[in-house]
Amino acid sequence: MSPSRPLLADLPDHVDVVIEVTRGSRVKWGADGGVDFLSPVRCPFNYGSVPAVAGADGDPADAVVLGPGLPRGSTHRVRLWGRVRFLDGGRLDDKWICGTAPPSRSERADVERFFARYARLKQLSGPLRRAGGASRSEGVDWRVPEPER
Which of 17, 52, 67, 89 sits CB 3.0–4.6 Å from 63 for a disulfide? Predict the structure, then answer.
């Protein structure tokens, strides 16, 4: 049985994120420094991990850092604004949404759209990855109210 998700209120306000994929890159690097994945599309966000916090899958918690591109390998202290509830191969694999400023309406929409598409691709590639179980985005929990128009 998979671990349950902590309440959003129980997650830290600020985290240190190590950038693994720079916004605009097509290369996902593994923890060992080798190429983990080459994507046909550019990553629309900075993507990394929070080494001090284990995710439900046992790996460091996954994190997206909104804003301009950040150098791979750099560490940034950022505010945690939300969480994508994500299931990967039947296992919880949530993604923390971080940044230095609250996400705009368009950034929120971009996050939700991206992870819905990403989940479909993961589901389709499941047999190739030998991943049993469903992959899907189960929505986004935001810490801050919807921005005013």
Answer: 17
70 is in which domain, residue-wise? 12-133
Number of other residues whose CB lies within 10 A of the CB of residue 102: 16
Alpha-carbon distance of 141 to 91, in angstroms, equals 18
Q: How many domains does the chain have?
A: 1
The token pair that represents 85 in the structure block: 């509830």
At residue 1, the pLDDT reads: 41
Asked if residue 99 lies in contact with residue 65, where contact means CB atoms within 8 angstroms, the answer is: yes
User: Is 51 part of any domain?
Assistant: yes
The model carries a pTM of 0.86
How does pLDDT run across 90-118, given as a tens digit for each residue?
888 999 999 999 999 999 999 999 999 88
- Residue 9 three-state SS: helix
Indicate if the alpha-carbon torsion angle 64, 43, 29, 3 is positive or negative.
positive
Does the pLDDT at position 129 exceed 70? no
The arithmetic mean of pLDDT across residues 45-73, rounded, is 93
Which SS3 state, helix, strand or coil, does residue 14 take? strand
End-to-end Cα spacing for the chain: 42
Note the helical H segments in 75-149: 105-129
